Amino acid sequence: MAGPRGLEPLTPSSAGYSEDRLLEGFAEFLRVDLRLQPRSVKNHVSNAREFMRFVNKPLDQISADDVRAYLKTRVDGNIYTYANKVKTLRRLLGSYLGYGWVRGFKIPKGYFKPKILPSREELKRFYYGLPEGRFRALFLVLASSGLRLGEVLSLTRGDVDLERRLILPKPHQGVSKRSWVACINEEAAEALRRYLSGYSGERLFRFDRHRISKVFRKVSEAIGVKITPQTLREWFCNEMARLGVADRFIDAFCGRTPKSVLARYYTDYSPDRLKEIYDKAGLKILS
Do 59 and 191 fall into the same domain? Predict the structure, then answer.
């Protein structure tokens, strides 16, 4: 089989073409052609390497039976992990290598599970269980903005207007996520002022995700309520809805509004208009 970009054939067994080189080409395809985020590229490459080592044969000899045997080891596990593996195979074997038959393997739909979100009292207990300074500031920014953790970690001082309490997140390079303008409440703004007064870096938060996960997990265990950055994003959406904010504006705050809609109805979604809607809601976390 002819591989992409004119390589003949594109398999780990080809002379001078190693597994690493194939995966490098796949990573470039994901990053350039599909415009995926670095974390998504890393995840797909890791899944692809796992699959290639499982089948242990040249990719031009791969059959549907090989894919089925690999997925069989995952089918009884977590549905989201299984879906992730299928997505990788469809992109590696289908989009990248041209095997149309791989699309016969369907991506399962996740099941809906009602979520029990923390109360304001539980959020307060969690907040006061965090180390003072940057962790508390991070917590309040996440809870009062609805931003994704990655968006908050990418922020620089120039992205935040503390006087107006406005945030302009970095635009996503990927196609599956969007960002627009976000707001924070006075609690978060004050926490940021205190934290930044003793910090001179340009990046707002110099954290790695592992460190954040470790601290959040430790505090969650201490208070008996599991809270993650994603929990805070979900709490924000729920609380803003409870305060009477329309879904379309919550979607805008959370970066879920298509760019075409933002451009067509800019007046409705302008920073000043969204700030007005946000302030009217009166979102509180600690008080």
Answer: no
Question: Do 132 and 84 belong to one domain?
Answer: no
Asked if the model's pLDDT at residue 134 lies above 90, the reply is: yes
Tens digit of pLDDT for each residue in 145-177? Answer: 999 998 999 999 999 999 999 998 765 544 444
Task: Give the CATH number, domain containing residue 86.
Answer: 1.10.150
Buried b (16+ CB within 10 A) or exposed e, 82-100: bbebbbbbbbbbbbbbebe
What pLDDT shows up at residue 7?
Answer: 41
Q: pTM of the prediction?
A: 0.68
Convert the pLDDT of each residue in 220-251 to its tens digit. 999 999 999 999 999 999 999 999 999 989 98
For 170, the domain range is 120-281
Q: Are 177 and 140 in contact (CB under 8 A)?
A: no
Both tokens of 60, joined, read 């031009």
Give the Å distances, CA to CA, from 145 to 142, 222, 285.
5, 25, 11
Pair 92, 158 in one domain: no
Residues 149 and 250 in one domain: yes
User: Would you state the torsion angle of the CA atoms of residues 252, 256, 262, 267, taken in this order, to the nearest 10 degrees?
Assistant: -10
